[in-house]
Structure formats: C-alpha cells, structure tokens
Write the structure tokens for this entry.
Amino acid sequence: LSTDLYLATLPHLATYFDASPALVQQTLSSFVIAFGTAQLVVGPLSDRFGRRPVLLAGFAIYFVASLACALAPTIGVLIAGRFAQALGACCTVLVARAVVRDANTPEEGAHILAKASSVLSAAPLLGPILGSWLQVAFGWRAAFVALTAYSVAAGFAVWKLLGETNNHRDPHATHPAGLARNYGGILRSSVFWSYAIPGALSYGALFTFISGSSFVLIRVLGVPTQHYGYCFAFGVTGYLSGTKMCRRLLARVGVQRALRIGATIAAIGGTTFAALAVAGFDHWTTVIGAMFVVLMAHGIVFPCVQAGAVAPFARQAGAASGFLGFVVMACAFPIGAWVGASHDGTIRPLAFTVAALCLTLLASAIGLARFRGRIGASIA
C-alpha cells in the first residue's frame, strides 16, 4: 500500500509541485533506499530484542511519517517523509519474514510465504483503484491520509493479536563483532546469493512497472486517472495467479524448478513487451498485458527466493531477511532513477528496461542453480 496507493498521483505531483518526472520519482527512490538500508539494522534488532517490539516501533514511525507526507508543503518535504515512512514499513515487512522462519521449517515457510503473497495481493490489487479515485475526488494528499489511518488500525491489531516468536534471542546481534560475524557469514554464502540475485532482478522488473507505468499510461497513452487503478490491478491479478501457481509448483517440482519456471515466464513476457514496442504497438493493452505476465512470474519467483535465501540461517533469520531486502532494494534504487531519467514520451524505455531485467533474471536462475543444490533437498 505504501507505493501502490499513491501511484496514480505521480503525474499529478509533477503538476502540483511543478517538478520533473525524475524529481517526482525520488518519492519512490527515497522510499526504496531507506527501506533497503534500514533492513541491515532492523534485522539484527529483531534478532536481539524480539520481533514484537521492533514491529510495534515500526508502526509508530510509519504513523508519524505518513502524517508528515499528508501535510507536506513541498516536494522536498514529501521526499523526506517518504524516506521516514520506509523506515517504519521496513520493520513490518522484515519482521513478517522472520516470524515465518521462526515458526516453521524452510519447506513450510515457502508454502506459507506463497499463501501469504496470495492474500497480500489484495493491497496492490485494490490499492491503485482506491488511490485513483482518492486522487480524482480529493487530490494527492488523500492517499497519505488513508495510509495514516490504516497504520493505526494495523498497529492496533498487531498489538492485540501477535505474540513473540523469537525464542533464540541473540544478545550480541547488534554488537559490531556480532554484526560482522552474521553478515560476513551471509556474504560468504553462495546459497544466499544464488537466490538473492534472481530475487533482486525479479523485483527490479516489478519496480519498473511501479515507477513508470502511471506516467506511460496516463501521460503517454491517455488513460484517465480514474481508470489507471484498474489497469494496474489487472497486472496484479497476474501476480495473484503466480502466487497460486507457486504453491502448486512447490508441491510438485520443488523450489529450484519452480524458480526456473517463473524466470522463464518473465523472460517471455519481457521480450514480447520489447518486441511489441519496437513494432509500434503503443497501446495501453500492450503495457498491462506485459505487466500481467511479468508480475505473474514474480509471484512464482519471489516466495522461492525468500524461503531459499533465509533457509540456511535459522538463528540469524532477521539478519538474513534484512540483507535480502537490502540487496533487492539496492537493485531497485538505480532502476527507479533510470525509469524517471529515460522517460521520453514513448513506451520504449519502459519496455526495454523490463526486457533486459527479465532476460538477466532467467540467466541468473539457470547459471546459479548449482549453488542452490546444496540445500535443495531441505526446502524442495
């Protein structure tokens, strides 16, 4: 919701603040860099102090930051507010992954993450639709007012319902020596990188659509703002389909083959998108059709990546989950900047960027498979 609810406002933010698309993209890029970097700290904090206190602190930060965004008088304040908002959002996403690892085996975790992804797809499915109508009815600030209200409701639910799951707290997790030891082990793990690299590329393709689709659909192809949410939601149904496919594939073929199937689908969707752009099919159906296929592939790839990358680190699940998030967001940050800078009034930069990322994803899924084999039996 932190990104999808306000996607329809991006072109209007450019008009409201008299800002370039590249500057407006920084409201996404600042979120991404803060979200990714904070995970390096949030993960160890949850390993040391527990999941619950870190999660509740994250909701408090998110509430204050969302309110600041809603009241922002300048684009600079909005960018700063988005940066702070990401710090709070980081706590919720990272702790959720760590909780799954705390309470389940790697195999169970992969299935639960795929199931959770299906449920959570309601946010990107309905968020852009709601955001589009909020923009038309009340303007861009309404999206952040809605996020502020939602953070209160979600934080209260967590406070009442979620217990502590970290039964092996590490008192040295935040000490410099402990951090160096934990992250050093993750950095040296070829298993971790064999999942993290495809995961970062898959998310990069998704983030290309997140950061560029509203400008292309609304400004280039003339889709009305109130209809943009439906276009994005159609793409998200691909993601929902992918998460359901992932659950079936995990049961039948295991994590490794499911990952390769997802990467293959992504490559097909990305190259077809680029070919249609070159052929001159500049139509909104081209964009959302490609979005559907690429997001479906992401729905297959990412649950496999999350389970596989964290699986070798039962006692450092927070740190491993945080470092995975950092790698993914570190890939997304330059992609967001590139999408804003390369925008030229056509669909080609969007299509070519998606195609390049999807082809590289397939290459990494195939080329790094031998490293994933070390724990394949434990999570397949």
